Amino acid sequence: PVVAPKIPSVKNHNWIQTPIDAFVLSKLESEGIAPSSEANKITLLKRATEDMLGLPPTQDEIQAFVNDTAPDAWDKVVDRLLASPQYGERWGRHWLDLAHYADSEGFKADETRPRMWRYRDYVIKSFNDDKPYDRFVQEQIAGDELYPDDPQATVALGFLRNFPDESNAEDIPLRRQEILNDITDTVGSVFLGVTYGCARCHDHKFDPILHKDYYRMQAFFANLKIEDHALMGTVEEKRSYQEQLAHWEEQTKGIRDEMHNLLQPRIQAAYNSGLRRFPDDVKQAIARPANEKSPMDWQVYWKALPQMEISDASAAKALNPANRAKYDALQAALAKYPKPRELPTAQVMLDGSSAAPPVHVLRGGNIDAKAEEVHPGFLSILDATDAKVT
What we know:
Strand order of the largest sheet: 1-2
Radius of gyration: 28 Å
Structural class: mainly alpha
Number of strands: 4
Order of helices and strands: HHHHHHHHHHEHHHHHEEE
Largest sheet: 2 strands, antiparallel
Distance between the termini: 33 Å
Oligomer: single chain
Shape: globular
Number of helices: 15
């Protein structure tokens, strides 16, 4: 049990300014070590500024502090440093390291993540705003569910999007499992303060963390879907945008259908070419009718789709001159119906559907060695029952 320790008795009471100092001084005295002399004002300012901002103080800041003889001179320095935007930039870096923040996917393709910077800025702003830690945690795990009217709570879900990803992998189920493993490991190390990745393959060697606990925790995230264009805005702003977009789509349906028909052969060829590269089980999941797809089929489909798609602009390049002229004329006609102004978007992870794929304990962490099915839950030593998911 956590209890308040007794403050040690010390000889040099004049050195103590806070109760913590008594513990430090007690240890020094037991070792026969005298405390260092008090730092002068320039040294003190240098230490504080570099620690809090990662930058040295300017000459003007040094001069102002040296000349300030008021009793609260030091308090004013600390308040100024905490109010500096560089404070969040300095200390936000530590959190970004924990979250494995990166502006590209990693692996050999290493595509850029053009909107990932929003998560970086969210972290910096959270530090500078002195956001309560519990709110900071909740936003990064379930911001869209808990705070749907706060656009920044959507951006916070970028925490779950920072995994390295081989986005052109052919084995989609294995790619999905590697993503889930990274999310599970990161959530454990960041929010539970323990590295429990070894429980992916067996019971933990040193801590009371079971092999199945790893997959119980992973089950919370089994339904996540990569969403690199998540709309930012309040519930009302999103509703209004969707209504305006639906109206625009209704007005332009005929034009857009004609454009699509011109591009369809090239789009279909790209789809077929991309489909051929996948193994049979992935092909079957993709081809299954929508009303027959399982939650796992949808997971496979959404992760495979980008490898089979090409943009309209790319498809248009393959048109012959006559069809290109028709396409350009249709584009001009479409331009007469301006689309509603888009909301900003962020790269995050969101629920893929209302039902999640089943999660099994994987013997030795092997995706092909499924054991018992498990449901979302916490570490058994804390709560062995399944979590109540609503």
